[in-house]
Amino acid sequence: MLSAFANSLRIPELRQRIFFTFGLVFICRLIAAVPTPGVDAVALRAFIDQLHSMAGGSFVGMFDLFSGGALQNAAVGALGIMPYISASIIIQLMTAVVPTLERLAREGDSGRQKITQYTRYLTVLLCIVQGYAMAVTLENPQAFGVAGKIVHMEGWGFRLLTIVTMTTGTMLLMWLGEQITERGIGNGISLIITIGIVSSLPSAIQKAIAMFQPVDGVVQFTVFHAIGLLVMILVVIAGVVAMTQAQRKIPVQYAKRVVGRKVYGGQSTYMPLRVNYSGVMPIIFAQAILMFPEKILQMIPLEFFQRAAIHFRPDSALFNIIFGLTILFFSYFWVATQFNPVQIADDLKKHGGYVPGIRPGKPTAEFLDRTMTRITLAGAVFLAIIAVFPSIMATNFRVPWIVAQFFGGTSLLIIVGVMLDTMRQIESHLVTRYYDGFLKKGKLRGRR
To answer: Which of 31, 54, 99, 185 has the fewest Cβ atoms surrounding its Cβ within 10 A?
Structure first.
């Protein structure tokens, strides 16, 4: 692996792409550090810390995690890249149900450019709404049970300034992500999110070290706990990598076709069906929905609803059970909206392909739907276990949340998925130049 990293710097084009990516990532981190005018950064940090302690792994914590700490700093990029991600998810879901968008998706590059344009417009709209909500929240921290003032100047002047500043920050991050995708290495948007998550790793390491230091002369965690945590994180990472790459290979045979004097087809291949087809989307959907019940129940001035709100806190057993079931539901929901077995079966039939032992057309679509339903169950159960694992560690084993989040959940899935995708892209550049990649061992054996 070390030789593969060294070889990647010997290829001029790949070296330029890597350095270009590092440069834009550095700019993204600057955007996450430049503060928004009119905000008391010290008071805001105390406000965010109190929200973390009240909600554990709540939506606020996830939002701050994805923004790379920019929310806690009230930075220009406090909204992060999440409005663009939300807009992309909305457009992607609408493509499956809106005929006009579905036709655009099938038109090739021109259609995709039009969909990208709609996504950008929706991103601006979401930035305006979220920027206004952010400004109102900063003006009224008392609504969250926090005393004190965060904003120096209140009113529409501050609100408009916050909306313009944060919308500009998000659009700049979106543009930088597109530049990384086009001229750098890896998927730019995903890399920006990953770097934001990894930026909290030093603080997590510091908290992890503090776990093994005595408090009031009492040592809560011993060296055996440290060994157990190390083994646990290695096992969890290995499991996430295996499940991320797991796929069911459906054999496909193409019939021979004679066109003029040439014979086409006749080869055997396979159709890969990913076990974790929905990726991290079900966890994000479930977290976004389950942030509301506790707040809604707390607003009802009746003792029964106040007691019920306690069970919807992230540290309760009922919340984790509902969280897992919600992830199962959204895993199948995502597959139902994004995986179209009828279209795949029709495309196979048009190109002379068929699954051995299955008749083309409707029987093939039913076979693909039945197979995808079965393997999605394994992927959904895995997602549910990984999602609730950090909460169990933080609640039952008193592990700090910033440490526990790297043992599963959204952050670990995103880091592993993005790193694997980036490594595959570097691997393709190395193999093209006849260099050994990350999956092979050996010396340099080709041209530059």
So the answer is: 99
Rounded distance between C-alpha atoms, residue 22 and residue 373, angstroms: 40
Distance CA 168, CA 345 (A): 44
- DSSP letters, 29-93, are HHHTTSBPTTB-HHHHHHHHHHHHHHHSS-HHHHHHHHTTTTTTTTBTTTTTTHHHHHHHHHHHH
**Full DSSP string of 344-366:** HHHHHHHTTEE-TTS-TTHHHHH
CB 309 within 8 A of CB 294: yes
Please provide the distance, in angstroms rounded to a whole number, between the alpha carbons at the two ends of the chain: 18
Whether the full predicted model's pTM is greater than 0.85, yes or no, is no
- Main-chain dihedrals φ then ψ at residue 170, nearest 5 degrees: -65, -40
Rounded to whole angstroms, the Cα distance separating 60 from 51 reads: 7
Encode pLDDT of 288-342 as tens digits: 777 778 777 877 778 888 888 887 777 788 888 888 898 899 889 888 888 888 8
CA 421 – CA 438 distance, rounded (Å):
13
Q: What is the pLDDT of residue 55?
A: 44
**CB contact burial 263-292 (16+ within 10 A = b; e otherwise):** eeeeeeeebebbbbbbbbbbbbbbbeebbe
Provide the CA 435 distance to its chain's centre, in angstroms.
31
Dist. CA 170–CA 79, nearest whole Å: 6
DSSP-derived secondary structure letter, 378: H
CB 151 within 8 A of CB 158: yes
Question: Beta strand 268-274 with 257-259: parallel, antiparallel or unpaired?
Answer: unpaired
pLDDT digit string (tens) for 117-159? Answer: 888 999 999 999 988 888 887 787 766 555 667 777 778 888 8
Query: Among 41, 39, 123, 110, which residue's Cα sits nearest to residue 79?
Result: 123
Longest pairwise C-alpha distance within the chain = 87
> What pLDDT is recorded for position 49?
67
Q: What six digits make up the tokens of 343?
A: 């279209």
For tokens 């694997």, the residue is 420
Cα 115 from Cα 109, distance rounded (Å): 10
Query: Could you tell me the strand order of the sheet in which 247-254 lies?
Result: 268-274, 247-254, 353-354
Beta bridge partners of 258: 263
| Gyration radius of the chain's alpha carbons | 25
Please identify every stretch of the chain with a pLDDT value under 70, giving residue numbers as ranges: 1-2, 4, 48-69, 142-148, 257-266, 433-448
